[in-house]
Design a protein that fits this description.
Elements lengths: L4 E6 L3 E9 L5 E10 L3 E2 L2 E2 L2 H19 L5 E6 L4 E11 L9 H11 L8 E13 L17 E12 L2 H11 L3 E7 H4 L1 H4 L8 E7 L4 E7 L2 E8 L3 H12 L3 H12 L9 E4 L2 E4 H25 L8 E5 L9 H9 L2 E4 L2 H4 L7 H20 L22 E2 H6 L6
InterPro entries: ATPase_NBD (IPR043129), Cell_div_FtsA (IPR020823), FtsA/MreB (IPR050696), SHS2_FtsA (IPR003494)
Function: Cell division protein that is involved in the assembly of the Z ring. May serve as a membrane anchor for the Z ring.
Organism: Clostridium tarantellae
Length: 411
């Protein structure tokens, strides 16, 4: 294992990064995180590479200062906008004197699962291991097959498919900022490390990440990724609506939105005053409500389109887009008709709830690298484990257990 792992989430409103390590007990531990305002990024896409590179450098520099680490390698979270998921099985015969699964058998099954037919403009950018199966009835749904005695080993993968040159694009951006690009993780799927657990193993769950200008959706059946969806709408659309309808600039519109959000579900006659400007409360409410309900409707339609609506028992909402509106969980529950839980920055004790995304990216990367190191398992040809023998400096530590603790009461 490398001494530390850095994950980066490139968003339209902010760029976030987190750094983790493995403590003396072998447990995942968050060292610190950082975020800066995004520049050169529009709807999750890089519109001005020069400005985007400066924002990335600024964010990582803050992380360097906070931890004292000489950061060189970065893993990047990627939006479901770029991706689709395909389930695939790979098989291999287990031969040998004792017919026990070895690293080579796992690699053979892994490579077999990747042998699928793609469109000419597509490539596999990530492979997520769901579970392993064997023809040994005692081992049908397992995480670690090494040493198991069987005749046939089967691996179940979720292949993340994107347009060709997607990896090269992100590599160019990260290397342009002065860092080594180590690979990508599907951001919305990384959130399963935060929100899914043994308590959701018998449930179907939708995780919805609502950002500034886009919404990512992942649907899980018994903790296994089944579908992805993307909506080009987010919290900034509400800001733009306020700016247009109230004839004000977007900065003031953002302040109006934030000032009113804490009393959104209890509108009344009167006015709201923001920075010496006065606005009709009911007008502000109606503008926000119209766009808010549209976003919720799109989320519901995407779940229905994937034919999972009747089966989904829980919907988890996260992100900074709409989470801070008063009683938003009840509003969404009324529209969607599901058990809804909305997570805000207060649940995580972070300045922004979206900080949880880069933390989930480093958690996902840590678990995969640990799998490689502990079990000698293939993950991705782009992953190279670098040994860094520099001793860790004293830094502020944030244990992953703190992030997970409050989730026990949800399900």
């Amino acid at each position: 294992m490398p001494n530390y792992i850095v994950g980066l989430d490139i968003g339209s409103s902010s760029i976030k990064a987190a750094i983790c390590t493995e403590n003396e007990n072998g447990d995942f531990e968050i060292l610190d995180y950082a975020y800066v305002k995004s520049k050169g990024i529009n709807k999750g896409r890089i519109s001005n590479p020069d400005e985007a590179l400066l924002s990335i450098r600024e964010c990582i520099d803050k992380l360097k200062i906070a931890t004292g680490k000489d950061i060189t390698d970065i893993y990047v979270g990627i939006s479901s906008e770029y991706c689709k998921v395909i389930s695939s099985k790979g098989h291999t015969y287990v031969d040998g004197i004792d017919s026990k699964v070895t690293k080579q058998h796992i690699e053979n099954a892994y490579l077999d699962a990747k042998e699928i037919i793609l469109e000419n403009d597509e490539e596999i950018i990530d492979c997520i291991i769901d579970y392993f199966e064997t023809d040994n009835w005692d081992y049908k749904n397992i995480r670690n097959p090494l040493g198991i005695q069987c005749s046939v080993l089967t691996i179940n993968l979720n292949l993340i498919i994107s347009k060709k040159n997607t990896l090269n694009f992100f590599e160019k951006i990260i290397s342009g900022a002065g860092y080594n690009f180590k690979g990508v993780c599907l951001s919305i799927d990384c959130l399963k490390n935060i929100f899914l657990s043994e308590k959701t193993e018998d449930s179907n769950v939708a995780i919805v990440d609502i950002g500034a200008e886009k919404t990512d959706i992942a649907i899980y059946e018994k903790n296994k990724l089944k579908e992805l969806a993307f909506i080009p709408l987010g919290g900034s659309n509400i800001t733009k609506d306020l700016a247009i309808c109230l004839s004000i600039d977007t900065n003031l519109a953002e302040e109006v939105k934030e000032s009113y959000s804490h009393k959104f579900s209890t509108p009344s006659n009167g006015t709201i005053k923001v920075n010496e400007s006065t606005f009709d409360i009911l007008l502000v409410h109606d503008i926000i409500e119209a766009r808010l309900l549209e976003i919720i409707d799109y989320i519901n339609k995407n779940i229905i389109d994937e034919n999972f609506s009747n089966d989904i028992e829980k919907v988890i909402i996260t992100g900074d887009g709409i989470a801070y509106y008063e009683n938003i969980d009840y509003i969404i529950k009324e529209k969607i008709g599901k058990n809804v839980k909305v997570f805000t920055k207060n649940h995580f004790s972070f300045e922004k709830s979206s900080i949880i995304t880069p933390i989930s990216i480093v958690k996902e990367t840590h678990d995969r690298l640990k799998l490689i190191c502990d079990q000698q398992m293939l993950w991705n040809k782009r992953v190279i484990i670098d040994e860094n023998n520099n001793k860790s400096k004293n830094v502020k530590k944030r244990g992953f257990s703190r992030v997970k603790a409050f989730l026990d009461e949800i399900f």
